[in-house]
From TrEMBL:
<dbReference type="GO" id="GO:0052883">
    <property type="term" value="F:tyrosine ammonia-lyase activity"/>
</dbReference>
<dbReference type="InterPro" id="IPR022313">
    <property type="entry name" value="Phe/His_NH3-lyase_AS"/>
</dbReference>
<dbReference type="GO" id="GO:0016853">
    <property type="term" value="F:isomerase activity"/>
</dbReference>
<keyword id="KW-0456">Lyase</keyword>
<dbReference type="InterPro" id="IPR001106">
    <property type="entry name" value="Aromatic_Lyase"/>
</dbReference>
<dbReference type="InterPro" id="IPR008948">
    <property type="entry name" value="L-Aspartase-like"/>
</dbReference>
<dbReference type="Pfam" id="PF00221">
    <property type="entry name" value="Lyase_aromatic"/>
</dbReference>
<dbReference type="InterPro" id="IPR024083">
    <property type="entry name" value="Fumarase/histidase_N"/>
</dbReference>
<keyword id="KW-0413">Isomerase</keyword>
<protein>
    <recommendedName>
        <fullName>tyrosine ammonia-lyase</fullName>
        <ecNumber>4.3.1.23</ecNumber>
    </recommendedName>
</protein>
<dbReference type="GO" id="GO:0044550">
    <property type="term" value="P:secondary metabolite biosynthetic process"/>
</dbReference>
Length: 513
């Protein structure tokens, strides 16, 4: 991936998924919009809240308890203590910690939301969040414990607490107390003012940050699966007529037309080909554009859902300082992200299933049109003791099954919680975590199928009547050969699979740009 040269500016400018990805990968600096008018608008929200407190106004989460405790009045002498209580009692997250990339995405998503200026927070809070990103001070956030409304309360409590100098962070590769890191950087921990802990926690930043990462991975996986399919068409001596431009003009879904065009380019098809003895390939080749095209067509609306959420004020209440109103609503509800991630994991799992079926064809002498059993490259006198990609194909079946199992929608499992105040919740964070897991599994399937396809292409090239590879596939085959030599004698392939996964994570190969 290329370095994001321009700083990512938090303020009134809308961010794109690519901005979040650049920050998550430490490929761009950050800055906060600095003009006086913007900073004055941010400050006005906090000043309006102060004026309401002076008038003893009733504001949810400021002069009341939280959730169903909103009917409990908080005396003015206790208002200052309320934010710390909020992040303290929510310090009950469990499960694995979010990794560094995900944590940066979460910080970026929360900062962008608060920069709308309708959350009642100080400029100083925005500056400290931006400084966390700039100095890579990463709160240690357990990934479990959010129902996705009221936002991501429990995981985001770890952001609020670490800004206040409590709990732990990852800093310069070491697990440290937030207090120690504040001292090292000569920062004073923030003392969160009324509404600030609620503004930090009562939003959709965890699910949205994860959704940005999931989208980027799915977009690359689509292109990689198309390239793998092209390689398998060569390895299996498939019929390229299945991707004819005129054919797809008859059913013009843009996504499947795009995938078919990529396949034509990879296979260097610019004219009708000579008829083959086999008119129709099995569906995992013939219908690849139709499977992958659904994902391709879905990326536009997935981007829209994610980026609108990313660029929204998604906490409660909304502070309208211009009109001097406090608007109580439900913008913390992560329904759009939940639906997007539930949909994405189904789309991605179908990619795993497609590639798994292609690999099954490659290793089976009944269907691979003359390739050796299990793609073994062993000479005839040693073929009986070599098993090539047999175990890799078994593993791929397992990864595919697990990916498909995880497509159960999280959003349909709404549970009434918090004394039935939160009686309908989105489960968007669970959906996003599921989507990341399905992507991990599908990338494993892609890594295995890519190595097998490359082996199949190499085996096909050994034939006396072998045709030269099209340019794009020849370049890919040559590059893969540097790290993944042909499997002749059996060898353990775990290390090579892990290296291939690393290449996928880095988006190492430039595909269909």
């Amino acid at each position: 991936m290329t370095t994001h040269l321009e700083p990512v500016t938090f303020g009134e400018r809308a961010l794109r998924i690519e901005d979040v990805l650049a920050l998550a990968n430490r490929q761009a600096p950050t800055q906060l919009q600095g003009d006086a008018a913007y900073r004055q608008r941010i400050a006005k929200g906090a000043q309006f809240l102060d004026s309401l407190l002076d008038k003893e106004g009733v504001i949810y989460g400021v002069t009341t308890g939280y959730g169903d405790s909103c009917v409990v009045a908080v005396p003015l002498q206790h208002v200052e203590a309320l934010p710390r209580h909020l992040y303290t009692f929510h310090g009950c997250g469990l499960g694995k910690l979010l990794d560094a990339q995900a944590t940066r995405a979460v910080l970026a998503a929360r900062l962008q939301s608060l920069c709308h200026g309708v959350s009642g927070v100080r400029v100083e809070l925005l500056e400290r969040l931006q400084a966390f990103l700039e100095h890579d001070v990463l709160p240690l956030i357990p990934e479990e414990g959010s129902v996705g409304a009221s936002g991501d309360l429990t995981p985001l409590s770890y952001v609020a607490a670490t800004l206040s100098g409590e709990r732990e962070v990852m800093f310069r590769g070491e697990r440290r107390t937030a207090a120690d890191v504040h001292r090292e950087l000569n920062w004073e921990p923030l003392v969160l003012r009324p509404k600030e802990a609620l503004a930090l926690m009562n939003g959709t930043a965890v699910m949205t940050g994860l959704a940005c990462l999931a989208f980027a991975r799915a977009d690359y996986l689509l292109r990689l699966a198309t390239r793998i399919t092209a390689m398998n068409v060569v390895a299996l001596q498939g019929n390229p007529e299945h991707f004819d431009e005129r054919l797809f003009a008859a059913k013009p879904h843009p996504g499947q037309m795009q995938v078919a065009a990529w396949l034509r380019k990879d296979l260097a098809i610019d004219a009708p080909t000579a008829p083959l003895h086999r008119l129709q390939d099995r569906y995992s080749l013939r219908c690849a554009p139709h499977v992958l095209g659904v994902l391709a067509d879905s990326l536009n609306w997935l981007r829209s859902f994610i980026e609108i959420e990313l660029n929204s004020a998604n906490d409660n209440p909304i502070i309208d300082a211009e009109e001097e109103r406090v608007l109580h609503g439900g913008h913390f509800y992560g329904g759009h992200i939940a639906f997007a991630m539930d949909s994405l994991k189904t789309l991605v799992a179908n990619v795993a299933d497609l590639l798994d079926r292609q690999l099954a064809l490659l290793v089976d002498v009944r269907y691979n049109h003359g390739l050796p059993s299990n793609l073994s490259g062993a000479p005839a006198e040693r073929a009986m003791i070599n098993h090539g990609f047999k175990a890799v194909q078994i593993g791929t079946s397992a990864w595919t099954a697990e990916a498909l199992k995880n497509t159960m929608p999280a959003s349909v499992f709404s549970r009434s919680t918090e004394c039935h105040n939160q009686d309908k919740v989105s489960m968007g964070t669970i959906a996003a975590r599921d989507a990341i897991r399905v992507l991990e599994l599908t990338e494993q399937v892609a890594a295995a199928t890519l190595l097998a396809a490359n082996q199949g292409v190499w085996l096909r090239a050994q034939a006396e009547d072998a045709r030269p590879l099209p340019q794009a596939l020849a370049a890919m085959h040559e590059e893969l050969a540097k790290d993944f030599p042909p499997v002749i004698e059996d060898r353990a392939l775990e290390g090579e699979l892990r290296l291939c996964l690393q290449r996928i994570a880095e988006q190492h190969w430039r595909l269909h740009a």
